Structure prediction request, 131 residues.
Amino acid sequence: MANALQQIIRDRLDREGWSYGEVARRGGIPRSTVHHLATAERVVRMPQPSTLEGLSKGLGLSLDTVRRAAAEACGIHVYAADAPPAEGRPGAPADPEVDLLIASVQQLSADDRRHVAALVESLLGRDARRG
Prediction:
């Protein structure tokens, strides 16, 4: 069964009649990268932001759509920050980086989560001292 990223790539190729090479050319990324993302059994780590941007451009899809599909393919559940208020979340616009950070933290060990929390507290304290 295809993962979410494979599915959007295949759907777009089928719909537009494009090849991996055409998507790569349109997005300014290597053909081998498009092929790998479209055919790999598992995506073991999140592709680089520049790869996601190129794939988005090459497929003619929003960066958010490609980023969310890639995250899902990596086994990262992305929580939508713009979920309806009925679900108990504010209706603020989604920030893909925040969504990815929140989802990724769940995959860290307890010790690593403590390190991330300490870093965030330090950064927030630093910003407060500047302000």
In short: The two ends are 51 Å apart (CA to CA).
